[in-house]
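step=encode ok
step=design start
structure_in=
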């Protein structure tokens, strides 16, 4: 790590991700679009590098093929990768590395080898392209070998000598563990097969590689950072993380307030704000009509966002479902999920057709429409690496009823009287979930109090601009 800091304008970040929105639809892809855009707004020079997917139409996205072709030796063969360049809707330069046989996510190449090729190709990209990169910011296990290749394969490169790696641990459970027999095919020394190196309980771990070899590590939640240092939540990597605890940085994940604004969102039947909440009732009525639910303005509309899974806490919802129905609330499930959970939700809908509805389509625009209609968002998650739903819900006037974990614990304060912005409970405990859910319904039935709580919850929502500021402060530690 260097000692002389650069200004934001002099800092060039290459953000490396296996998927980026809108070319992919996933929380990781959305994050990989959002963070570089905010870093650019903070004045940093930032580019994105990601694998090319043949389903992307280069003409539609105005992608231009660069003259430079990346050449490298990998898996016993000479590999060539084309480089396509474009811009995201926010103006960030994005580079696609293309080899439809070996790098395409729709291809048949071994996923571990595909990830290894992408990691090595990132190094080759920085080495060969006429772009001065200070920091490679990696995210996802698919980029986990970048710092390993920098040390093992590119140690003699003068251009890469000063490049450092900042790795975001988005989900400690998503580790990229594969057979150790792949080490030679990845072009890595057999001596790396060691518990103090890449070996992880008899396998090769890409995430462990990233933790060991990156210059600095980050998480998107201070509470999540604390949790993964423990045996309970560390997914067997807690010991490795504790060894690098001094190199762990965290930021509070925020939302893009321009994209998530109920005052300007064109998809809403009526726009509203914290100071003008009455139109929110029109949004609620529109969704009730769309889903075939009776209009019940005096009863709360609760929303559960998918995926429908154990990790999202659907078992806790099942535990208190009859109690919720006794209070005559309406409960909407948005999205799809594991088959047995989908069947369970359909059974609940058949049993309570006037109180429960399902909407399978689940994208960012749909979520904003439904959050604008909802009075509360149920978030009884069992596991949670990173999430923004609680913040977008607050922005659209839906008060979270949430388990106090990870990013929820960073920016949600328990409601006590007329103070706080969410109804929170501790532990994966149906009784605790029941208590806060009933408290929330009781509060809704006091119209004046509920109005004050919603107005307070809608304000002071963390933004992605503050997240970018935190990242830049962390980057400066590398310079």
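sequence_out=
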């Amino acid at each position: 790590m260097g000692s002389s800091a650069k200004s934001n304008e002099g800092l060039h970040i290459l953000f490396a991700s296996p998927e980026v929105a809108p070319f992919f639809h996933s929380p990781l892809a959305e994050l990989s679009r959002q963070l570089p855009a905010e870093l650019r707004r903070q004045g940093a020079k930032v580019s994105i590098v990601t694998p090319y997917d043949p389903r992307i139409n280069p003409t539609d996205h105005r992608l231009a093929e660069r003259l430079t072709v990346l050449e490298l030796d990998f898996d016993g063969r000479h590999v060539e990768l084309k480089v396509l360049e474009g811009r995201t809707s926010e103006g960030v330069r994005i580079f696609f590395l293309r080899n439809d046989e070996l790098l395409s996510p729709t291809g048949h190449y071994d996923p571990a080898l595909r990830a290894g090729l992408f990691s090595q190709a990132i190094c080759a990209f920085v080495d060969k392209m006429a772009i001065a990169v200070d920091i490679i910011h990696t995210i996802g296990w698919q980029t986990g070998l970048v710092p390993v290749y920098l040390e093992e394969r590119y140690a003699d490169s003068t251009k890469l000598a000063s490049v450092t790696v900042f790795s975001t641990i988005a989900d400690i459970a998503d580790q990229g563990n594969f057979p150790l027999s792949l080490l030679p095919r990845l072009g890595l020394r057999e001596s790396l097969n060691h518990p103090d190196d890449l070996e992880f309980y008899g396998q090769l771990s890409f995430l462990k590689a990233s933790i060991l070899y990156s210059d600095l590590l980050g998480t998107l939640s201070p509470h999540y950072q604390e949790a993964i240092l423990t045996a309970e939540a560390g997914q067997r990597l807690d010991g490795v993380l504790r060894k690098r605890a001094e190199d762990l940085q965290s930021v509070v994940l925020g939302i893009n307030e321009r994209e998530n604004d109920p005052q300007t969102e064109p998809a809403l039947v009526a726009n509203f704000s914290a100071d003008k909440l009455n139109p929110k009732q029109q949004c609620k009525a529109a969704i009730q009509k769309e889903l075939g639910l009776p209009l019940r303005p005096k009863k709360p509309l609760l929303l559960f966002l998918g995926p429908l899974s154990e990790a999202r806490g659907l078992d806790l919802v099942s535990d208190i479902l009859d109690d919720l129905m006794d209070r005559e609330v309406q409960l909407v499930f948005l999205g799809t999920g594991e088959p047995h959970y989908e069947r369970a939700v359909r059974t609940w809908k058949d049993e309570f057709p006037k109180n429960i509805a399902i909407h399978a389509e689940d994208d960012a625009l749909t979520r904003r429409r439904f959050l604008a209609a909802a009075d509360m968002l149920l978030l009884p998650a069992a596991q949670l690496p990173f999430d923004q739903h609680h913040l977008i819900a607050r922005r659209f006037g839906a008060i979270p009823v949430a388990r106090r974990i990870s990013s929820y614990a960073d920016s949600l304060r328990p409601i006590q009287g007329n103070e706080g912005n969410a109804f929170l409970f501790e532990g994966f405990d149906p009784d605790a979930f029941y208590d806060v859910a009933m408290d929330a319904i009781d509060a809704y039935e006091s119209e004046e109090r509920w109005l004050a709580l919603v107005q307070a919850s809608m304000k002071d929502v963390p933004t992605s601009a503050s997240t970018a500021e935190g990242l830049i402060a962390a980057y400066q530690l590398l310079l």
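step=design ok
step=annotate ok -> Residues 433 and 463 are 28 Å apart (CA to CA).
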